[in-house]
């Protein structure tokens, strides 16, 4: 099973890019972030024509997350992150796909910091950590995939950067990400490639892409049962170089799953 995460940065604006990548990469499951469209504007007709079912949670202008599955429709389990009934930002969606629970995550950016946006980022992170603990305790195969808006270590950003004030690099952000890993989650990309550049994001400004000044913001965390079956992982850098591309590139993993897991169906409801 090939599972990918891709911050598409406006799905309708970049629909051609997405469809071209789907046809070439042939993922089985895709987590999308930053749809930047209301639910009714989600391009489900084009997605289905490409051979994918989908569930999504949209929001006008900002945010928005989705999960796509090849030749099937994901079984929705949760449309929001628990812990704050007043939070209406579309940043989390969770669904079962062929016996694996998959979450698409768009964690708040948090800039500028300090300030209310950074406070919201950390509070949202606390909620994610609490929910991730429950998922880990349930002892089911789970993938937490998405744009975490966290650069975990200095090895995950280009050398000589001047981003020390960026919310993505703050000690609190990095500590929160480490708290997730300490629950027993495996950072799939770094497990496969423990050293060297592994960028998933290159900003549009200051020639970041042509100069390869990137960051690793998109992560895929696995429960132990899936981590044992992790066979490969990587970043489709070439997608960032397409005309009209998102500022992110898709990250992906491949999991070798037994048939009994592939045929299993989870029916947990919110």
From TrEMBL:
Q: Which molecular-function annotation in GO is an example for this chain?
A: double-stranded DNA 3'-5' DNA exonuclease activity
TM regions (residue ranges): none
Give site residues, Transition state stabilizer: 149
List ligand-binding residues for Mg(2+).
7, 34, 147, 149, 247-248
Query: How is the cofactor bound here?
Result: Probably binds two magnesium or manganese ions per subunit.
Keyword Manganese present in the record's keywords: the answer is yes
- Residue numbers annotated as active site: 106, 147 (proton donor/acceptor), 248 (proton acceptor)
SUPFAM superfamilies reported in the protein's UniProt record: DNase I-like
Q: Which cofactor does it need?
A: Mg(2+); Mn(2+)
Recorded family membership = Belongs to the DNA repair enzymes AP/ExoA family.
- For this entry, the protein name equals Exodeoxyribonuclease-3
Source organism of the structure: Methylocapsa palsarum
